[in-house]
Please model this.
Amino acid sequence: MDIIIDCEQEDDGRWLAEVEQLPGVLAYGSSPNEAMTKAQVLALRVLADKLEHGEANPVAINISIPVAA
Model:
């Protein structure tokens, strides 16, 4: 599974990071790094929960985080 974290700045100045492969996994931060870190933590928690409850099979995981501008 490839997990790609997309990050963009909102109109109010906050940063939003989202994992498209996992619906509902998004996080806000005051910087791109903070938002992407929070999204990565949440994505790993969601995957762990799915594995723990038998909703997913174990697979290799690759996480790609773009370099913030």
Remarks:
- The chain has one helix and four strands.
- The first strand starts at residue 2 and ends at 9.
